[in-house]
């Protein structure tokens, strides 16, 4: 693995009386794919969203490429350009074409020339398998195609790390693999990725490390082979017995 790229140290987060992140220590190295799994309500998505400050933290520190997360303003916008994010819902601009959705960020946030942004966007749309959909509006695409456009849009900013917050959970079953295939390709290309997912096949095949969360805490982390065949905690064993037997 490369040097540390995303580092969370002793991170705490409350929603009112609920302690959703408890003393989280996690390091994601450059080029590493870390998959976070666990039951609903365990804090996985909240952890993911703190890394580009979509959620603030109460205490602790988060650094991306050696820089601590800024509070707000231009520095935060700059950081968000370095941290690509793909959500459950695709969050595409409904009234803009697929090509416009992918070029908007680089043009507005980075000052990239329109012609350059369009060339790069077309390359990325080809890469995720929707190059022939560039002129369409998002509503004319399937869910799987929309999510692949959302991935291309995040990649258009040339991020240092990609965050995926349950990117396949809103998709019909037959569309899940087309999105996972793109993510596997990114992993193979060396993209640093933090992925919150229920897709255990992806965790097994693409992750360098699996992090298991429960009750706002990291209970266990290991390489996929070790985690899926010999988890050390009772909680992880119980979780896996429920999801892997069906």
TrEMBL record:
It is an enzyme of class 7 (translocase). Its EC number is 7.4.2.1. GO terms for molecular function: ATP binding; ATP hydrolysis activity; ATPase-coupled polar amino acid-transporter activity. Residues 6-240 form the ABC transporter domain. Its main location: membrane. CDD domains: ABC_HisP_GlnQ (cd03262). GO terms for cellular component: plasma membrane. SMART domains: AAA. Keywords: Amino-acid transport, ATP-binding, Cell membrane, Membrane, Nucleotide-binding, Transport. It is found in: Cell membrane. It is a peripheral membrane protein. It catalyses: a polar amino acid(out) + ATP + H2O = a polar amino acid(in) + ADP + phosphate + H(+). Pfam families: ABC_tran (PF00005). Belongs to the ABC transporter superfamily. This is ABC-type polar-amino-acid transporter. It comes from Cellulomonas chitinilytica.
């Amino acid at each position: 693995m490369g040097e540390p790229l995303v580092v969370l140290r002793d991170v705490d987060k409350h929603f009112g009386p609920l302690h959703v992140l408890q003393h989280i220590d996690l390091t994601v190295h450059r080029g590493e794919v870390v998959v976070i799994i666990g039951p609903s309500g365990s804090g996985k998505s909240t952890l993911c969203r703190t890394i580009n400050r979509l959620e603030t933290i109460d205490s602790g520190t988060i650094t991306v490429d050696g820089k601590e997360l800024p509070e707000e303003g231009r520095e935060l916008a700059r950081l968000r350009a370095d941290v690509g994010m793909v959500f459950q819902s695709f969050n595409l601009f409904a009234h803009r074409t697929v090509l416009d959705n992918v070029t908007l960020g680089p043009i507005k946030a980075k000052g990239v020339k329109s012609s350059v942004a369009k060339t790069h966007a077309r390359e990325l749309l080809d890469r995720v398998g929707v190059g022939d959909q560039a002129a369409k509006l998002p509503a004319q695409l399937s869910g799987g195609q929309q999510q692949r456009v959302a991935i291309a849009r995040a990649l258009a900013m040339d991020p240092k790390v990609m965050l995926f917050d349950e990117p396949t959970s809103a998709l019909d079953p037959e569309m899940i693999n087309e999105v996972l295939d793109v993510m596997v390709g990114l992993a193979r290309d060396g993209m640093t990725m933090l992925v919150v997912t229920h897709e255990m096949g992806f965790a097994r095949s693409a992750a360098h490390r699996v992090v298991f969360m429960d009750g706002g805490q990291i209970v266990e982390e290991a390489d996929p082979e070790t985690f899926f065949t010999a988890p050390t905690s009772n909680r992880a064993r119980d979780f896996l017995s429920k999801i892997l037997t069906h």
